[in-house]
Amino acid sequence: MTAAPTIEAVTNRIRERSRASREAYLARVDAGERRGANRAVLGCGNLAHGFAVCSPAEKAMLAENRVPNLGIITSYNDMLSAHQPFETYPALIREAARQAGGVAQVAGGVPAMCDGVTQGQPGMELSLFSRDVIAMSAAVGLSHNMFDAAVFLGVCDKIVPGLVIAALTFGHLPAVFVPAGPMTSGLPNDEKAKVRQLYAEGKIGRAELLEAESKSYHGPGTCTFYGTANSNQMLMEIMGLHTPGASFVNPNTPLRDALTREATKRALAITALGNEFTPVGRMIDERSVVNGVVGLHATGGSTNHTIHLIAMAAAAGIKLTWGDISDLADAVPLLARVYPNGLADVNHFQAAGGMGFLIRELLDGGLLHEDVQTIWGEGLRGYAVEARLGADGTVAREAAPLESGDPKVLAKLPQAFQPSGGLKVLEGNLGRGVIKTSAVKPDRHLIEAPAVVFHDQEELNAAFKEGRLTGDLVAVVRFQGPKANGMPELHKLTVALGILQDRGFRVALVTDGRMSGASGKVPAAIHITPEALDGGSIGKIRDGDMIRLDAENGTLDVLVDESELLVREIPTVSLAHNQFGMGRELFSGFRALVGRADEGASAFAA
């Protein structure tokens, strides 16, 4: 099926814009394929080091290049709930590979930090940059040139984007992404939010707050709200890097293990030693990237991906822009209501029909490219299914249901929750930014109010606690961009601004920092670029300036005469406190090299 005209037009625009860079990238993929995997080009000493701990039979097979060898890149650690299940995956993958006549080795590990742990803390300033560190760490593991394909174990925030960048950098190799799944449902997200507000208002204590948080985040697996982690899993499936139906199956279940074994066998099947060679650098193209953006809009996904998708695409020589993302948002309706865009969590989304239902609806509506390559080898229609556990313990699949299991969570196209996607690009005399509208009530899409300026989130929260924030306002939190301090998530603002809005004030946030997939009911213009430290007009705003945020028309302006704005100077703000502690001194090079948010906020050369 041919995609709808807007989808085709945006795809063609990206393709034309990317022609030179994509051709150069594919030439590098060609060169990597000609060099070949691997053991054949390694000296005897190199190879001996590479398979020293393998069994004699495995050594013999690898020495003669008779069987494929999978390189496992893992983000396992046992502090973070989403990544703890990966502890058992290498043994499972090695055994599945052996049964299929191949070999698998852990090629390397990558760091995996959690914004949920570091939010509001100094360590959060490493978070965005960890994406590029993860890409480099994975490259170190794969640089041994021992592998015919790579299997990537990652779930959350910056981990999956970093792994995708690494996979595409090694584009001559097939790449299969293997998820761990979401934790089972705990305390409902809306109840958790109410407890947070009560704590912020001083109506309950820390013990009650910790009890509620612990009931929400209570076991192995991803957090169940629809933030960046679960947006990652949606992207990997709709872009064809997961096996069909793999994204939202709970950890430590027979089906989860069966999916992991199946993914291993699939990775072996698509190497150059088989008949279905599928190098990831050719598999992921402009159509795949557009499908990812469409999925992001249809599900009201994380605003972080307005940064990450640009950086991921760039790793394949594809030039995606905020303009493309905005135009696709206008063409794609919202089909999912998952917290913070609704009361349901991802387990409810999965039970209502999940990715198979969503993909089928979007395909039938002409909103996805069906004729893409995937690791499954069937085009995207092969993903319009539900995965089940077969009687023999392997994965069985059936067509996705024709009707949603819960229309309040997952809708058919004719009953879409809103006609456009959950993200909007804003432009005006303050530069460019992004807003997530899917959780914001329509009567809050236009806010015009005086600015109250802060230089970090602690200043704002202190002003709130002291009762200095009254009346309508636009909170401007600046010097939070990638060059200033690594562009941290500003989650600590959510509660205070939410309380002010609940008191009847018209409230909005404008910042060159991030709010991620957790941004909710308060309109938040985020990722403002140019950032204050880079000369952006956000640095020129003064207390009392009227700011107009219009999410319907996609504009963001400070209502000051242009001639005055031009001559205003940006105040000198000391950022010394951001330079040291919790490892921040090691990231000074990243702060110096990083690009703009609308260019992917990457430290890598374009």
UniProtKB/TrEMBL annotation:
Keywords: 4Fe-4S, Carbohydrate metabolism, Gluconate utilization, Iron, Iron-sulfur, Lyase, Metal-binding. [4Fe-4S] cluster binds at residues 156, 223. It catalyses: 6-phospho-D-gluconate = 2-dehydro-3-deoxy-6-phospho-D-gluconate + H2O. Residues 408-601 form the Dihydroxy-acid/6-phosphogluconate dehydratase C-terminal domain. Its cofactor is [4Fe-4S] cluster. Pathway: Carbohydrate metabolism; Entner-Doudoroff pathway. It is an enzyme of class 4 (lyase). Pfam families: ILV_EDD_C (PF24877), ILVD_EDD_N (PF00920). Its EC number is 4.2.1.12. It comes from the Bacteria. Belongs to the IlvD/Edd family. Catalyzes the dehydration of 6-phospho-D-gluconate to 2-dehydro-3-deoxy-6-phospho-D-gluconate. PANTHER family: D-XYLONATE DEHYDRATASE, PHOSPHOGLUCONATE DEHYDRATASE. This is Phosphogluconate dehydratase. It comes from Mesorhizobium liriopis. The gene is edd.
